Amino acid sequence: MWALVENNIVTKVFKRPMEVTTSDYVAPTYYEETILWTEDDELPEGMAIGSVKHFIGDIKTEQIGSIYSKDIFTSWTTEQLEEVGIYEIVIDDTNYRNEEYYINGAESFTFADGVVTRSFGVATPIELNDTVNEYGDTKLGLKSLHKANINSQTNAILTSTDWYIIREAEGGTACPNNILSWRLSVRTKSNEMCELVDAVTTVDELAALWERTNTGTEETPVYTRPLGEWPTLEE
Q1: Which end of the chain, N or C, is less surrounded by CB atoms within 10 Å?
Q2: What is the reported pTM?
């Protein structure tokens, strides 16, 4: 990512190589008809009235500013780019937070000491709990959304063995005990996960439930998370 700096101010940002046009750019103009010297002109030496002063296609006004091809991003050195005001952007993500849990502040680009920095304003935590607006509409908070996701996962996990239950209910072979035990453990774990979600008081506590850490060794890592893991079906 690059920025165009003009008069010590970032005026444009480029996420990929593309043509660069400076803010002061004005295209040149050209004479569209032949212009002759007249008696009102101050004739230069060797010229006479009626001689050609400007041919069609001669420059009438010079170009102001510059246009650079996108190729400069790959063919020019860093020093060459900076000479024309194009700087690679340094990202300061100090304030940037996980967008699943925060509304990040507005991004800004500043130029100081020869460096363009992209930074963010202070992030705002997304509401943990459901809220109701003045019209009575409910907006689900992070707790409700995460519990809904857990319940969705629960249903998806159980789906593969639903046929055992259906078969027994319709008078067929009884569901094996290991399947019954496993399905019960899945529902129990689902309830435990939802209880953990309900217990948090900050978005950081909520995010931490899903963060895996190595509780083993470097040689034999074992990654676990406070939320726990889904039970596996034993054959």
Answers
A1: C
A2: 0.73
